[in-house]
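Message: Just now I want nothing more than another pair of eyes on a protein record. I am handing you a single protein, as its sequence and its fold in token form. As I understand it, each token names a local backbone shape. Take your time, and here it is.
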Amino acid sequence: MLLHTVRRHLAPVGGALVAAVLVSFAAPATALAECPDENLVPTAGNLALVESAVLCVMNRERAAAGLVPFNRAPKLDLSARFHTSTMVRKRFLAHEVEGHPSLLARVRGFGYFAGSRDGIYAENVGAGPTTNGTARAMMTAWMGSDTHRQNILHPPFRDVGIAAYPAPPDRAFFAGFPSTVYTTDFGTRYVRRRCVRRTARTSPTSPSAAPRRRYCRTVARRG
């Protein structure tokens, strides 16, 4: 398996973007319980089933870690599909390439962060020989890599977009045989709830009237 991963924070408008790019190529095998179609060999006609199997395995791992499951977000799906098809057409395995949108521009461009005041996002990509490029094999590789596993099991993430594409024999992936190329885009969007004014607690000895203060809470929005 070939792997890449990245996680980033979307700063509020006007703030700075802080980025950390982490790369790993480790891919040890692990035993997993069954998810429907996780051992399905990818073909051009069954990629939707393969992608659903990836979601199932990811959510199984998150459940085992006591985390909430991912919601599959259509706008992150669009970002992941665009990027996976671009990697296959342009023959590279990375998160960004010169002349094409950055990861942030791509996720924003498909509208995922529309209406959000803040957010976090990340991406795992990988490729495996098609005969062993199943959802289970790809997830085994990701879970065997610290950086990829951290994205999958990052507690604040709520949404994911998934894409799998076939690639012909190519030195960018596997020179001697066809492969299946994967992208998973993770995200959480934060929005501010309506603020309320409440009477603040005061000392029993204070003669002044209790002031009313404004309380606001930022929460994650799913989907």
